[in-house]
Amino acid sequence: xxxxxxxxxxxxxCYFFSYHDTALKVNISAADYPKxxxxxxxxxxxxxxxxxLLDFPCSLWPGMIDIIG
Length: 69
Description:
The protein is mainly α and 69 residues long.
């Protein structure tokens, strides 16, 4: 993918907000979130923190560094 194509990509939540004026509700429980993130710890990965202003409290997860390594 080229830089231009990457810049044009939207996540599903942003797509619906941009084109349908609808904010999708995220349905991940607080208990499941660390389990999902902890999978990154075992793989070489680049983590990019994306803050969702519509869901700001859940965008900054306490202890994220401990969860992802």
